[in-house]
TrEMBL record:
Top EC class of this enzyme: transferase
Keywords of the record: Magnesium, Metal-binding, Transferase
Protein name per Swiss-Prot or TrEMBL: Isoprenyl transferase
Note describing how the cofactor binds: Binds 2 magnesium ions per subunit.
Role according to the record: Catalyzes the condensation of isopentenyl diphosphate (IPP) with allylic pyrophosphates generating different type of terpenoids.
Native source species: Candidatus Staskawiczbacteria bacterium RIFCSPLOWO2_01_FULL_33_9
A Pfam family matched in the record: Prenyltransf
GO biological processes: polyprenol biosynthetic process
Record-linked Gene3D superfamilies: Decaprenyl diphosphate synthase-like
Binding site for substrate: 14-18, 30, 58-60, 62, 64, 177, 183-185
Lineage, uppermost ranks: Bacteria, Candidatus Staskawicziibacteriota
Family under the similarity heading: Belongs to the UPP synthase family.
Sites where the protein binds Mg(2+): D13, E196
């Protein structure tokens, strides 16, 4: 394969629908989705992808039931602690983007510990978007620029990107969305200006390494012109 995306953004969508089809609790769907995300990250790493950003919990997801929100927060915390040793062994740098101040204190602590422990790893970058929204990201960048009183004539795209939560990362080359929906759902809106989009009808827990291969093959066949 000639072209491998440096940065993949993932929408692991369809966990609850998958659980409903199986006749099991929706929370079990999230657990299966979590397990598949760990596998997906390894598939990406094995294929030469350098950065993976996964949508874990959006700003809109706070409107879900308290039971589901609490479960997801606990699952995210468990995922960070349970995999910390493996992240360091495999050279994975973990970063969380989003409204961290809205998260439970125990999850905030887990994030700080994980980010600090993996900060010097350089083989692969895993970014987890938790309580994240694309509109929020743009607004918080604007507010920081205003607070720092940067003159308007000094603000360009390069400077602005340094104030986004994804500062320092390459913009995504490929966005993969499982679950059949065909929209960006308020995710990395600025960063995805020239990203290639790939939509799969597979519900996330059923998404396989073969499906990733199909997405990468499609990406390899596209001509990226960046508006030129």
């Amino acid at each position: 394969m000639e072209h491998i995306p440096q940065h993949i953004v993932l929408f692991p969508d369809g966990n609850r629908r998958w659980a409903k089809q199986k006749g099991i609790a929706s929370l079990e769907g999230h657990m299966q989705g979590y397990k598949n995300l760990l596998e997906f990250a390894q598939w990406c790493k094995n294929r030469g992808v350098k950065v993976l950003t996964a949508f874990g919990f959006s700003t809109e997801n706070w409107s879900r039931t308290k039971e589901e929100v609490n479960y997801l927060m606990q699952l995210l915390e468990k995922g960070l602690f349970d995999n910390l040793e493996k992240y360091n062994k495999d050279g994975v740098k973990v970063r969380v983007i989003g409204q961290k101040e809205r998260l439970p204190e125990s999850l905030q602590k887990a994030i700080k510990i994980t980010e600090k422990a993996t900060a010097k790893n350089s083989n692969f970058n895993l970014n987890l978007a938790i309580s994240y929204g694309g509109k929020w990201d743009i607004l918080q960048a604007v507010k920081k620029i205003i607070e720092e009183k940067i003159p308007a004539d000094k603000v360009d795209e390069k400077l602005f990107e340094n104030y986004l939560s994804t500062a320092g990362l390459p913009n995504p080359d490929l966005i993969i969305r499982a679950g059949g929906e065909m929209r960006l759902s308020n995710f990395v809106l600025w960063q995805s200006a020239y990203s290639e989009l790939y939509f799969s009808s597979k519900l996330w827990p059923d998404f396989t390494e073969q499906d990733l291969g199909l997405a990468l093959k499609e990406f390899d066949n596209r001509a990226r012109r960046f508006g030129k």
